Amino acid sequence: MKITTLKTSTTALLAVLWLSIADAAPIVSQQIEPATIALGSAARLTVTASGDTAITPPMVPGLEFVAVGQSRRIESVNGVTRSTSAVTYQVSASQPGVYTIPGSGSGSEPLVLTVTPDGSGSHASTSPADGNRERTDASAFVRLRLPKHDLYVGEVVPVDIQVGVREGIVVSLNGLPTLNGDAFTLNKLSGEPQRAEEVIGGKPFTVFTWHSALAAVKPGALSLTMAIPLTERVRTARVDSGLFRDAGMDDLFNDPAFQDLFSGSTEREVTARSVPASFTVLALPTEGRPADFSGAVGHFTVSSSLSESSAKLGDPLTLSLRVSGTGNFDRVNARMLTDVEHWKSYAPTSTFKPTDDIGLRGEKTFEQPIIATQTGPQVLPAILFSWFDPATRRYETAHTEPLTASIAPSADAAPVALASPPPANAVVAAAPETAASALRPDHVDTGEGPKTLLPDYYRPAYMALPSVLILAFLGAWAWVRRGEQAASHSAQASAPQHVQPYLSLMEKAGAANDAELFFKSARTALQIWFAPRWHLPASAITEHDVERHLGADHDVSRLFTLADESAYAGVRLNRVDFAHWKRLVTRQIQPEALS
């Protein structure tokens, strides 16, 4: 009994002593797994630091460090508090070689990473087309399945986004996979992901697969990653007896009662990211580009129709153009008909109907109201539509068949029937003639003649009326103009107080690293600020209005573009980027709005 009590007391005492020593001087450690990888794959560097020691990524020429997860653990034992932080980096190399990663702080030893050019590293991998290699000892991975990595600007390719998780380790997926980078756009993900079981390195993974379509928006040597937030359960580290090994206390530190005192499990939120997938994106060729080309990339067919084959003069008809096929329908635009003889045309509208769940195949329909200006058979000419086909690497042009409509006179233009003259042999009864009417004057008697030959519109009474009307018009115009100016001044005066909430929201979004909310708030603030100055509703101000007032190369125009891109493609910013765009907004908005 005394031995047990003594052993327990000694265990507690040593635990307090060990924690006190650990907190006295910050300890930084790092490890990399695996130490040898093939070019194109990645390793994971985990840096752990005690206390409040800041962890920063190493700087090694030829290596790229991307933070993929971080955690912080706080423990309190017998009144002594100990905190530990850990950051995990995904490490990839630009070329083969042997790289030395310096220590991150006191107690941290340098590490060596070997990158082989022939895939002879010990890292488990998939085919190069996957653009990803998953670790067999990780709790989760993200990988991309793509048919090709050489693209043209605007070309759409299908992509499978797969997320593998370990059952019992990953507690939950906290969102959908998102695209990192502004050089690509991603169509809407398919609905519920497909679920399958897969064994990697002898360990079971549950793999969720989403389908989508990917397109590049600019040329160059580009890369992208996909990321997904998740919560994983990790077991706290067991105490290492190495600190007291020289004192002969291995048996004490390996005692289950001592280990259970410090071991356990905790949950942490991390972000799993795919290995960067590299692309070579080519610009669309200028040689052979048709004059009517509007940016469509893919393979398409076209057809057209008219809502009615006959109509009355002045009645509207609807001309429909259908573009079907496979490709980037966001870039499919048609000019339809303009300046056609005997026809008046209006701006067309468009609708898209996909035939798959990712928007890669479908039909886009353009409808244009037209009105004939002349009766008779009227011909509508063929409509041309051009696109670039990545499969043939050339431009293609198709045209519809001409259409004919029969235009009849309108009901309002019907001729008025005239009375027929009487027959030549008809007898016309004459009214009885009296003595007074027997003799009639040979001129019309209009009574008293005019006293002057001056026209009426030169007389003073008539000349006063236009003057009164002109003065009344000028007075009304001045009153309306004064009201508009007062409303404009009032809107400008009230703009600062309406802008301020969005500036505050923009500030909070920047601090939270929320790029989508940051750009949305910044754009709304600028719309409210410009509205009374440009005499436009705030919600109606678009990038086109910015280009018209400030120029196409203005930074505000780029901000409006990023606001749209961040909503559907995701935009990653660092602190420098947030500060740059914040300064841009504050320069545009006058100082009184910021007070």
What would you note in describing this structure?
The protein has four domains: 1-123, Immunoglobulin-like (Sandwich); 126-283, Jelly Rolls (Sandwich); 289-411, Sandwich (Immunoglobulin-like), CATH 2.60.40; 477-594. It is built from nine helices and 28 strands. The chain has 595 residues and is α+β, with helices and mostly antiparallel strands. Strands 9, 11, 12, 16, 17 and 18 form a six-stranded mixed sheet that branches. Strands 8, 10, 13, 14 and 15 form a five-stranded antiparallel sheet that branches. Strands 19, 21, 22, 23 and 24 form a five-stranded antiparallel sheet that branches. It starts with a helix and ends in a 7-residue tail after the last helix. Strand 26 (384-389) and strand 27 (394-399) form a beta hairpin. Helix 5 (460-511) packs antiparallel against helix 6 (515-534), helix 6 (515-534) packs parallel to helix 9 (575-588) and helix 7 packs antiparallel against helix 8 (555-568).
